[in-house]
Amino acid sequence: MLFNSYVFALVFLPLVLFAWWSERLSQRTRLTALVAASYFFYGWWDYRFVSLLLFSTVLDYCCGHVLESTQRPAIRRAALLISMLANLGLLVFFKYSGFLARSVNALTGAISGSQPLPVWDIILPVGISFYTFQTMSYTIDIYLRKAKPATSLLHFAAYVSMFPQLVAGPIVRYTDLEEQLRQIRTRPDWEQMARGLFFFAGGLGQKLLLADLIAARVDPLLADYGTLQLQTSWYAMLGYTCQLYFDFAGYSNMAVGLGLMLGFQFPQNFDSPYKSRNISEFWRRWHMTLSSFLRDYLFVPLGGSRYGQWLTLRNLVIVMFLGGLWHGAGWTFVIWGLYHGLLLVVHRVAQITSMRRLPQGLAALLTFLCVVIGWTFFRAQDLTMAGSLLWSMIGGHGMADHTLESLGGIRGVGLLGGLLLIIFAMPNLWQIRFRPTRAWALAVAALLLICVLRFDSQSPFLYFQF
Q1: How far is CA 437 from CA 138, 205, 367, 442, in A?
Q2: Is 402 a catalytic residue?
Q3: Do 81 and 203 sit in the same domain of this protein?
Q4: Domain interval for residue 254
């Protein structure tokens, strides 16, 4: 079920909000209804995968209580290991088994001509990369004694399955929601509800009116990538850069808005990352909850920056390699992750050697261009497409004779220019001073009406594929 669909906006969400804020229902009944609604929401894509979500929830709930109930190191390590192996095992099987089999077959085929491993066509359960990380963070935090286990399976199930953040984040820590789940509001805070509707409407507009609009121009160009020339390849990649920005920002803002409507505050997940002045800042502002997860549960356990510069640089590359692989099972994502790891290494070395800093505007432009180049691997279906795009971007396929016409005329250029202007010159939704006034109510209502009229052209969010 998509946020940008009639069934969600006009049926599912109103029914959930009505049940959730019903004063006749007890807190336990409301939580049960929320969990049931979230499982229904998840099962809308494929009911068979509801069992995976339930399995992960029950397993990690039990492991969390075992970790808390014993002081014996061997039992605690075993409980953590069971949780990690089960969650990562599901993730590897459903997301990476085909990629691993194809890679091994390609290697053995090149050496001996044999392909020993079967390649299964496995459907990727939507959101599995997100909720496995979320439940693993729970057991790891309890193991490290940074968190206490959930007081009931119902509370934990609500934390794991809550539909606003279930499919594509933000990746919420249990400590972020623990007190909120224990002290659920009995009556809605109307100012918070209004702010939630503002975030939801703003995110919906970013998706339908901006991301999908540029996608309609960019997708046909990238589908025929072999014919792109210098101008059209840069237009396509800058357009995709804007599409991904507004698509992911839109989802993140809608998730936060839905959480606020239910009385929950989720962490910010997106903070104008293209305004960053270096690649490290970019990763502090893009998919912020994933970046903090990789930092706390991978970079720091590897040693972080505590054991000298060489190990720090190694850790940065390892973390970004795995971060790239988390996004997708393919060599393009591996290279994208390694590319960003290399950029972080260059930035770190520049800091160590006290190289002269660039002017802020030039630093932001250089960072943005590095990110755009990296998106070629992120967008490409395979290495052949990535190579062709990069070759076109340096003029390898020549230049278009009629630049304006090749870029879709004044409308095409104006659309891209307008999106870049919004990205770099306007505040994001978190920076806007929203007040529940009549003027804001009319603006939000008008935006929602325009978006609802565009539901017929709905498309999935890009991060749903991860």
Answers
A1: 40, 20, 39, 9
A2: no
A3: no
A4: 191-465
Greatest pairwise CA separation for the chain in angstroms: 73
Tell me, yes or no, whether 203 and 181 share the same domain.
no
Residue 10 lies in a domain: no
Pairwise CA distance, residues 164 & 17, whole Å: 12
Considering the chain, what percentage of its residues have pLDDT values greater than 90?
71
Number of neighbouring beta carbons within 10 Å of residue 31:
19
Residue 322 to residue 379: CA distance in whole angstroms:
18
Q: Are residues 36 and 99 in the same domain?
A: yes
> What's the pLDDT score for residue 295?
95
172 and 263 in a single domain? The answer is no
Give yes or no for a contact between 16 and 182, defined as CB atoms under 8 angstroms apart.
Answer: no
Would you call 112 exposed, middle or buried from its count of C-beta atoms within 10 A (0-12, 13-18, 19+)?
Answer: exposed
What pTM was estimated for this model as a whole? 0.92
- Verify that 146 and 218 share a domain, yes or no: no
What 8-state DSSP symbol labels residue 380? -
Q: To which residue do tokens 């009549």 refer?
A: 438
Does residue 221 share a domain with residue 181?
no
**Token pair in block for residue 72:** 């014996």
Structure tokens belonging to residue 187: 């009556």
Give the Cα separation of 42 and 57 in Å (integer).
14
Residue type present at position 431: Q
Can you tell me the distance from the alpha carbon of 184 to that of 181, in angstroms, rounded to the nearest whole number?
6
Q: Domain tally for the chain?
A: 2
Give Cα separations from 454 to 3, 252, 444, 447, 451 (angstroms). 13, 20, 16, 11, 5
CB 126 within 8 A of CB 464: yes
The reply to whether 433 falls in a domain is yes
> Can you name the residues that pair with 270 across neighbouring β-strands?
286
Of 132, 158, 187, the last residue of a domain is 187
Cα–Cα dist 77/68, whole Å:
12
Residues 246 and 182 in one domain: no
Span 129-134, average pLDDT: 92
Closest of 168, 160, 149 to residue 87, by C-alpha: 160
The residue type of 185 is: R
CA atoms within 13 A on the CB side of 19: 16
The residue annotated as part of the active site, out of 65, 155, 287, 327, is 327
**For the segment 217-274, what is each residue's pLDDT rounded down to a tens digit?**
999 999 999 888 999 999 999 999 999 999 999 999 999 999 999 999 999 999 999 9
Asked if the structure places residue 416 within a domain, the reply is yes
Residue pair 30/20 in contact by the 8 Å Cβ criterion: yes
In a domain, 288, yes or no: yes
Tokens describing residue 388: 């062709």
| Boundary-marking domain end, from 187, 203, 221 | 187
Within this chain, do residues 302 and 437 fall inside the same structural domain, yes or no?
yes
Q: Report residue 465: phi and psi, to 5°.
A: -75, -10
